[in-house]
Design a protein that fits this description.
alpha/beta; D-Maltodextrin-Binding Protein, domain 2; 2 domains; 5-stranded mixed sheet; 3-stranded antiparallel sheet; 10 strands; globular; ABC transporter substrate-binding protein
Length: 221
């Protein structure tokens, strides 16, 4: 299955662990399947699926994979993406126009996920997609970019990492909620309809047993 490079606390590539990996592996194991993660830059995940390099993908990253034989499953996790700015900037982001003249850094493929907000910055080369989300936090803190688009838990994780490992204090930030969470954006995709169904069954059992929440609690706490 194609996964992104490191997205702690959801994906720890070095250990084949994390919230998302653990949940998907546990769901698949209910019907006897074993997960083998393969890691790609976020923007290459749908390409790996299209070129049959993998049997499944953690999500379609904004590319419809049904025409490439994809069977969409129920979402294992949902990312709560927000715009993040330095508090001292006093920026207000309530509409796409509020991003005019601002530079934005985010995950690869974000411009496809949120075209209403990011098409214009992307066309004007004010948007930069990068998989390394620790770098996103650093660049915002250094004021090289005005806005980070990130899952709020991912940003907090890396801000803490900078503080405790690199002794860098990240400036206080504001979070700007700009879109309703859409779970359908984060559905895993499988080449096999049967394995998709097996995954959905296992995911349902995980939630009923309490193990789903236990995996979240293990990493968040």
């Amino acid at each position: 299955m194609a996964f992104s490079l490191d997205i702690p606390p959801y994906i720890f590539e070095q250990y084949n662990k994390g919230i998302e990996i653990d949940i998907i592996a546990a769901a698949l194991s209910h019907k006897g399947h074993t997960l083998r993660p393969l890691y790609f830059p976020l923007g290459r995940i749908p390409i790996a699926f299209q070129n049959n390099l993998v049997d499944a993908a953690m999500s379609d990253v904004g590319t419809d994979l049904m025409s490439y034989g994809g069977f969409y499953a129920e979402p294992a996790v949902v990312y709560d993406n927000v715009f993040i700015t330095l508090k001292k900037r006093n920026l207000v982001i309530n509409s796409p126009a509020d991003l005019d003249n601002l530079t934005i850094i985010s995950f690869q493929g974000a411009e496809k996920r949120y075209p209403q907000w990011l098409s214009k910055p992307f066309e004007e080369k004010r948007f930069y997609g990068i998989s390394d989300q620790l770098t996103q936090v650093k660049l915002l803190n250094l004021e090289r970019y005005d806005v980070v688009l990130s899952d709020r838990y991912i940003f907090k994780y890396f801000a803490k990492q900078l503080k405790y490992e690199d002794n860098i204090q990240v400036s206080r930030v504001d979070e700007h909620q700009f879109a309703e969470i859409e779970p359908q954006d984060y559905r895993p995709v499988f080449k096999s309809e049967k394995i998709r169904d097996d995954f959905n069954f296992g995911l349902k059992k995980l939630k009923e047993s309490g193990k789903f929440q236990a995996i979240y609690d293990h990493y968040i706490e």
